[in-house]
Amino acid sequence: MVIETLDRPPTAFFRSGPSALAKLAFFSALALFLMVADTRFTLTRTLRTVLATALEPAERALRVPVEAWLAFGDYLNGLDSALDSEQAARRELARQAERALRVEQLEQENAHLRGLLELRPALAVRSLAAELLYEAPDAFSRRVIVDRGQAHGVAAGAPVINEHGVLGQVTRVYPLSSEVTLLNDKDAAIPVLNVRTQARSAAFGRADGGGMELRYMAGNADVQVGDLLTTSGIDGVYPPGLPVARVTSVERRVDASFARVGLQPVAAPDGVRHVLLLELQGVPRAEAAAEAAAGAVSAPARKGPRK
Fold first, then answer.
1. Domain count, the chain
2. For residue 176, what are the domain limits?
3. 183 with 235, same domain?
4. Helix, strand or coil, per DSSP, at residue 168
5. Would the CA dihedral through 273, 144, 153, 160 be positive or negative?
6. What is the CATH number of the domain that holds 283?
7. What's the pLDDT band for 289 if we cut at 50, 70, 90?
8. In this structure, are 79 and 209 located in the same domain?
9. Beta-carbon neighbour count of residue 28 at 10 Å?
10. Is 270 in a helix, a strand, or coil?
11. Closest to 135 measured CA to CA, from 89, 194, 83, 185
12. Segment holding 108, helix H or strand E
């Protein structure tokens, strides 16, 4: 086998062209020419316009994923911001609701206190403001506890009123609190006067605690629905003229000697917070009589024996 020599020319695949320096000079001159031609004669403006128009759909298609990613990020950021804003709005709404509730309670309390203050000058007896603490735990009675007691000068039997009328009467006195029996208690009783007819009678609490009633009223007595009953003052405990109740029903039976008269207290005990405790009407007179009697007994002792 004959080995050929290597001095034959290479194939066209490995044949080298111009040198790298020549290529650099050619393309540099071409670039410089194109720049000068584009600047001076705007030769490539049309070509750029055609290329930009042809490549615009491709550019839009390539921008779709980027814009979608940016929009997704904006959506997540907006969602977090919306959730934070919602939580802040809920907290602010809760604070506003609490504040509105306190304002409403203060307005109601202010109205009650104004009513009590306007009532005080019209009373001819001394009064003591008190606040209701809680209801008595006895489910079969209508009693409440107020925050004034013996230390504040409260005496058993003192009338209790609010801006609407009579609420009840103090039945037990403790050092720092007192128990008040309401008018609709089954053991409560109060002498009343019909404002329309000037007829005196007695009102009692009903056994079911649902209101009051007039007992021992004759079947032909002049009592009508809507009549206002006030304190008569004949018992020496309640000052005269305080509103007590209104007549809500009158039932007359042929087979009964007495009429059945239902009453509704004008001072509803539910929702009451501030009350006035009045001075007992009979206590000052009793004390004055006792002092007068004591003075009469001690007078001869001071004069000494007669000679």
1. 2
2. 127-287
3. yes
4. strand
5. positive
6. 2.40.10.340
7. very low
8. no
9. 10
10. coil
11. 185
12. helix 45-119
- For residue 162, give both structure tokens: 């609010």
Q: Which of 76, 99, 122 is the last residue of a domain?
A: 122
For 142-199, the pLDDT digits (tens) are: 899 999 999 988 998 899 988 888 999 999 999 999 999 998 888 889 999 999 988 8
Tell the residue number behind the tokens 């109740």, with chain if given.
Answer: 245
Clarify whether residues 31 and 168 are in a common domain: no
Q: How many residues does the chain have?
A: 307
> 92 with 178, same domain?
no
CA separation for the pair 96, 92 (Å, rounded): 6
Tell me which DSSP letter residue 11 carries.
P
Q: Any idea of the CA torsion for 295, 298, 300, 302, to the nearest 10 degrees? A: -110
For the entire predicted model, the pTM comes to: 0.54
Here the tokens at position 177 are 């609190």
H/E stretch holding 33 reads helix 20-41
Last residue of a domain, one of 65, 99, 122: 122
Locate 295 and state its tokens. Answer: 């003075």
Q: Hey, what are 282's tokens? A: 């009979």
Q: Is residue 9 part of a domain?
A: no
